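Ticket #4471: structure output looks truncated?

Reporter: J.K.
Steps to reproduce: submitted the chain below (310 residues) through the standard prediction queue, then opened the result file.
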Amino acid sequence: MPLPEPESADLPVVLLTGASGYVGGRLIPLLEKQPVILRCLARKPDSLRDSVKDSTQVVQGDVLDATSLDAALEGVHTAYYLVHLMSGSKNFEKEDRQAASNFAQAAKKAGVSRIVYLGGLGDDAEPKLSPHLRSRHEVGKILRDSGVDTVEFRAGMVVGAGSTSYQLMKSLTDRLPVMLCPRWLATATQPIAVDDVLAYLLAAKDLPIGESRIFEIGGPDVVTYGDLIREYARQRGLRRLLISVPVLTPYLSGLWLALVTPATYEVGRHLIEGLKNPTVVRDKKALVAFPIRPMGVKEAIQKAIANTNE
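Returned output as attached by the reporter:
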């Protein structure tokens, strides 16, 4: 099915994948205000059309089906790759690898000028980097290796009312007055508010075209996951007792999360495996390349709570 002719052929076409996800869904109305033609890729277009403007194109496609990507990428200048298959696959590493390869090859073939990708923090030199974070980095490399100018953002926990990591932390704190805390609650992390992630993603499309770049992004505060629980509890007026225990394996932690949070066991387990690795910004060049100054943890959690209660 041919795509409709745009009202203004002079505007660049921007393709958004992952439009039904948390960050993608928040990015749609922001891109709709930009001087671009927005096109969203969806496996089930009908489920997305009611949530976008009439001027936004919604096209059928699946990153695991290479043949479905050619029409979606036709004429695209900038493509946002916000796909992560962890929640829908038991072998997410293999499927993420295949999806990224399909998209990278199709983008190169279509003459896309730039890919913008949101991945995860973590040190590649870490010998025990979790499968979740290792997969995030592998996807970025596949996109860069395509030869298409790729801007990769690496972020830790995204603090926002619909973020999976934030929802896990929120649910644990809401439901458990006393928590047995595994070692990973003392792991250093540098969270970032969803509003700041969106600001970086928007700004990336306007960077001068050049070589592919990796930007590590985070808020100004380096904290632990225990600190996040305590700050959330403080703002909610909850009294919570955290008791450290020497051993709580990722397997047991995943089962624990499945009992007390709305996340599935598999997603919880993979996220927990990632929490054992420090996720802090080591390269601060994002603060040089962009005028964005991210908010701190206190304000980010305050905003997330306010948005949850709306």
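Triage note (M.O.): checked the attachment and the full token line is present. The CA atoms of residues 196 and 294 lie 6 Å apart.
Status: closed, working as intended.
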